[in-house]
Amino acid sequence: MEDREILFRGKIGNGWAYGDLRHFKNSVAIFRQGYTFPYLVIPSTVGQYTGLTDQNGVKIFEGDIIETTSGNRGYVVFENGAFMKSCNPKDMPFLIADVVNTVIGNIHDNPELLRGDNNA
């Protein structure tokens, strides 16, 4: 069995920090490998790397908006012990490993990508 890379990301201002997640008393921080100081991130934006990449080699994180080859869009959630694609709260999520995906944005920077007629 291959080890899965454990990696988190969180929003810092207009950018993102990637690395190890640490919880402090009143904040959440990400430590980048090789750095000794943390990046304090917005807790609601923290997402874990799924261990998967899209068809272009882009790492897929919780909160990413992905599009299937058929044009259906959804966002990545961790639910019932697995990373799933969910299109809206009423839909039954499905495993993201079951389809070919392209990361087209994320729910924090690009929520408008989930609006419209091409959601499934």
**Which bin fits the share of residues in helices?**
under 10%
Strand order of the largest sheet: 4-3-2-1-5-6
Tell me the structural class: mainly beta
**Rg from alpha-carbon coordinates:** 15 Å
Q: How many structurally independent domains?
A: 1
Terminal residue distance: 33 Å
Counting H and I runs of at least 4 residues, what is the number of helices? 0
Mean pLDDT, to the nearest integer, reads 83
Major sheet size, sense and barrel closure: 6 strands, antiparallel
What is the CATH topology descriptor? SH3 type barrels
Number of strands: 11
CATH superfamily: YopX-like domains
The H-and-E topology, N to C, reads as EEEEEEEEEEE
Shape: globular
Quick overview of this protein structure:
The protein has 120 residues and is mainly β. The protein contains no helices and eleven strands.
List strands and helices in order, with pairings:
Blueprint: E1 8-12, E2 15-23, E3 28-31, E4 39-41, E5 47-53, E6 59-61, E7 64-68, E8 73-79, E9 82-86, E10 94-95, E11 101-106
Antiparallel strand pairs: 1-2, 1-5, 2-3, 3-4, 5-6, 7-8, 7-11, 8-9, 9-10
Descriptive overview:
The chain is an all-beta fold. The protein has a single domain (8-114), classed as YopX-like domains (SH3 type barrels), CATH 2.30.30. Helix content is 0%, strand content 47%. It contains no helices and 11 strands. The protein has strands at residues 8-12, 15-23, 28-31, 39-41, 47-53, 59-61, 64-68, 73-79, 82-86, 94-95, 101-106. The chain has a 6-stranded antiparallel beta sheet with strand order 4-3-2-1-5-6, with no helix packed on it. A 5-stranded antiparallel beta sheet has the order 10-9-8-7-11, with no helix packed on it.
